[in-house]
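User: Hello, can you help with two protein structures?

Assistant: Certainly.
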Amino acid sequence: MISNAQELADLFKVLSSPSRVKMLELIKNRSLCVSILAKELNMTPAAVSQHMRILRSAKLAKGEKRGNYVHYQADNEKLKKWQKKIRLFFEPPLT
């Protein structure tokens, strides 16, 4: 139970940034490179890269090198796993 609590706390830290949440929304259904994400989010490419590093580290996003660019996409299997864990966390206790 404690390890699950730490896992959830770590996930919530990753998702505590509105920019990272927006990035995940953008890459859930399609892969995008840093320059497109930067343009969509009105951020610098360097800022996007820092946020993507955190998302990749949490295994919520994965990158694929295409020529000179890395295209990022959400790891939808990982998102489904977290969706279940979060749903269980917020379920009301049985009385």
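That covers the first. Now for the second protein you mentioned:
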Amino acid sequence: MKKYLFIVLLVIISSCSTDDSKPKEGQDTGLIGKWKLIEQYADPGDGSGEFTPISSNRVIEFLSDGTVIINGVLCYMSGDVGDKETGTYIAITDSDTQFDGEIIPNTCNSRFARIYYTLPVSGNLILWYPCIEGCGQKFSKI
């Protein structure tokens, strides 16, 4: 009887799993929705860069199905508005990184192009683009 109980317990335990692709706690509800560009960051190479206000109608939207839509180019930093581009996003659950997730654009020339995002406690979304020097954009939820 103990042998059967052990086997049943073993089956139950081995059938449990975790899904590491799920967003971090609180991120799934905080990230979903539309965000408007409010500031831009460009570092000249000496670490003195800072976010400065920008006037733009650029909006990025995160959908609950893992899709992201932006009204302009997604492959590189720009304040310009244009045709909609799309991509997918995933949360990064590795605690060794400074980013909360990554966006994989559908339209870039390189299939390795990634835009990383952070959602700090301040509540503003920051996109970090691939640049030689640091560059990013700050968005406010609308």
